[in-house]
Amino acid sequence: MPRLFTALEIPRDAALSLSLLRGGLPGARWIDVENYHITLRFIGDVEGHIADEVANALDRIRRPEFTLQLSGVNAFGSKKPHSLVAGVSPSPDIQALHAEIERICQRLMLPADQRKFTPHVTLARLRNVRNEEVAHYLSSRGNFSTAPFTIGRFVLMSSRDSIGGGPYIVEEAWPLEAPRSFYPNRAERPLEASRINR
């Protein structure tokens, strides 16, 4: 079975900015640009009927679009760094979306994710890289940030690579709702109909 997780995709301009961080650290295994994403909730290897239940439950999520900004570069693994990541500026919207997906996973009795939710984009996997080299890499890229970008949907992704790092496949996608200001005429708002289904 494929390994499943919910995620946010990285738009092209932000991915291009991230790609400029590649290189300059011997021993780093860089993630392909097309595989950049922000994991919302790791689900894991599940049977097909469980995957269907997850997808059906995610169908009921109704949340507005929001903006995100990537900011800062860091390493995960305090004593022995194992990955390089770009951080996400604080966002109540991404936290709320994650919390709703987490509640759905708990209702479906999926194993809890033991790690604290720290939104990020993985840039590289590290093996046998000296701590001093990682520190030097991070200090020279500490002021990294992207322009804010709009998150218009979240996705269910799969990976068949046991090592991690892709290739990732979008299995399903759920749009987020456009702000009401896009619909100056009240009668045109699609949100009115969706409220009935909540």
Automatic annotation (TrEMBL):
| Annotated source species | Phyllobacterium trifolii
> Function of this protein?
Hydrolyzes RNA 2',3'-cyclic phosphodiester to an RNA 2'-phosphomonoester.
Residue numbers covered by motif HXTX 1: 37-40
Q: Does the keyword Transmembrane helix apply?
A: no
Q: What is this protein called?
A: RNA 2',3'-cyclic phosphodiesterase
GO MF terms held by the record:
2',3'-cyclic-nucleotide 3'-phosphodiesterase activity; ligase activity; RNA 2',3'-cyclic 3'-phosphodiesterase activity
Identify which top EC class this enzyme belongs to.
hydrolase
Question: Which reaction(s) does the protein catalyse, per the Swiss-Prot or TrEMBL entry?
Answer: a 3'-end 2',3'-cyclophospho-ribonucleotide-RNA + H2O = a 3'-end 2'-phospho-ribonucleotide-RNA + H(+)
- Residue ranges annotated as motif HXTX 2: 120-123
* Active site per the UniProt annotation: H37 (proton donor), H120 (proton acceptor)
Cite the EC number. Answer: 3.1.4.58
UniProtKB keywords: Hydrolase, Ligase
Spell out the family assignment given in the record's similarity comment.
Belongs to the 2H phosphoesterase superfamily. ThpR family.
